[in-house]
């Protein structure tokens, strides 16, 4: 069986506060071979890893990421909402994550959150950081904003891109190839085996999200997906071990 990428969704977000260094470190311990995280930009242009455009849910501050500076953001507690055990975890920067993974063999899936809020220049900034850390061959850029991915590909043909979508995209392998993407990050219920084969025949990798049940992981692995995005990388690692035996 071909190696399946074990992509930890916002780190080990089943066990730790999502998109924190605790979640990233834990997912490595649990067997992840890649980390998915969400990238946004502060008012002073810092690239930070957080899912929501608002800081309310994970830090309690009723402001948008785009309206605070990095220094204001570092003051916030992004761990307590999940559990008091994580009090003091802060919103990490993209550079924090690159520092963690650069000496390891992990891949990184950077989801650009530039749909609801627009972050002019985020593509340039993410590509600059990726190149500065020598991560170009280990990063996959993804987004629901496909104009943004097309822009990334023009700026950095050497960095892979993957299109995020929910359902019903007709022949997504043809569509994605039009702007140089090489992966399909599809909502997992919308993935059927026949499409996985058709995509693979055109060199297009499926990385469905967010798959937490082992039975669904098994279905997708048997269909031939190249990777799975999960909150529980330990479950996927365990399953992959049994399927290799
Ligand atoms: O990249 C897969 C997944 O993270 C996309 O949705 O909302 O969890 O960022 P979301
Ligand atoms: Mg995401």
TrEMBL record:
Superkingdom of this protein's organism: Bacteria
Database matches in Pfam families: GDPD
Domain GP-PDE per the UniProt entry, residue ranges: 4-240
PANTHER family named among the record's database cross-references: GLYCEROPHOSPHODIESTER PHOSPHODIESTERASE, CYTOPLASMIC (PTHR46211:SF1), GLYCEROPHOSPHORYL DIESTER PHOSPHODIESTERASE (PTHR46211)
Designated name of the protein: Glycerophosphodiester phosphodiesterase
């Amino acid at each position: 069986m071909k190696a399946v990428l074990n992509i930890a969704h916002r780190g080990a977000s089943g066990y730790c506060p999502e998109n924190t260094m605790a979640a990233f470190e834990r997912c490595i311990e649990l067997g992840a071979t890649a980390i998915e995280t969400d990238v946004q930009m502060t008012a002073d242009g810092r690239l930070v890893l957080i899912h929501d455009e608002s800081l309310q849910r994970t830090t309690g501050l009723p402001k948008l990421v785009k309206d605070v500076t990095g220094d204001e953001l570092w003051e916030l507690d992004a761990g307590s909402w999940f559990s008091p055990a994580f009090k003091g975890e802060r919103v990490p920067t993209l550079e924090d994550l690159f520092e963690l993974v650069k000496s390891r063999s992990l891949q990184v899936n950077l989801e650009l959150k530039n749909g609801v809020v627009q972050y002019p220049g985020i593509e340039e900034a993410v590509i600059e950081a990726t190149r500065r850390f020598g991560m170009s061959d280990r990063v996959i850029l993804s987004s629901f904003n496909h104009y943004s991915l097309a822009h990334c590909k023009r700026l950095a043909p050497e960095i892979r891109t993957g299109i995020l979508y929910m359902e019903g995209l007709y022949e997504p392998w043809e569509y994605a190839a039009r702007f140089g993407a090489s992966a399909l990050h599809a909502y997992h219920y919308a993935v059927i085996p026949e499409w996985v084969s058709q995509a693979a025949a055109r060199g297009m990798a499926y990385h469905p999200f967010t798959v937490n049940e082992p039975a669904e992981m098994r279905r997708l692995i048997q269909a031939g997906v190249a990777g799975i995005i999960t909150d529980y990388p330990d479950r996927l690692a365990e399953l992959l071990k049994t399927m290799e035996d």
